[in-house]
Amino acid sequence: MPGKTDRAVCLPSLPTGFHVLQTGRLSYETGLAFQEKLIKRRLHDADSEYLMLLEHDPVITLGRGSNQAHVRLPPEELSRQGIACHEISRGGDVTWHGPGQLVGYPILHMDQVGRDLHRYLRLLEECLIQTLSAFGLHGERQPGKTGVWVGGRKIASIGIGVRRWISWHGFALNIAPDLRAFEAIVPCGLPDVTMTSLAVECAKTPSRAIVEQEIIRSFAATFNLQHHGYHDLALFTQT
Q: Which residue from 25, 93, 132, 223 has the fewest beta carbons nearer than 10 Å?
């Protein structure tokens, strides 16, 4: 009868790299559909992990732990302003996504982090902290909270989901959004939080392309994975 060592040898090895999918600006529903496809692909083809990078149309999302009262505007006003609203399966409270923000959705098997979700959250924070350091900013954690701050102001939010030990949802880094948009919500359920961005904190706002490259570099370093290139978006949409 095979022992534990024999069984371990028979298990398929985890990917050592990841591919990036850059989609540009999408509605929240379309971004969710892309994630669903990537999860299915990751479950049936274990040759790579994925990192999806995009920007959303204006949207408010409410995680599993959210409080509806943290949406400050009534539905008719949200509709008038063109802001969609979705209850979703990630953890966390209420957040806003929209133009000027970089959203990242890692599709990553949790065996890469020992199936430890707390460790995964801390590594996502570390990825964002390393990215900020490339622009001369000192990113910080706050005890008991998830996300990244600069000088006591929140610059990045994190909310994850896991399906069959594959991660989805992820993080949002403020590059140059209109920060007044956050007035529509209580960001992440934190009533006294002040939101900020790279545009506010940096002497010169970095381009989205440069921020994406730094995110990719930091993601590779943090999760000890090689960047294997970019996923063919045209081919992907046909599958």
A: 25
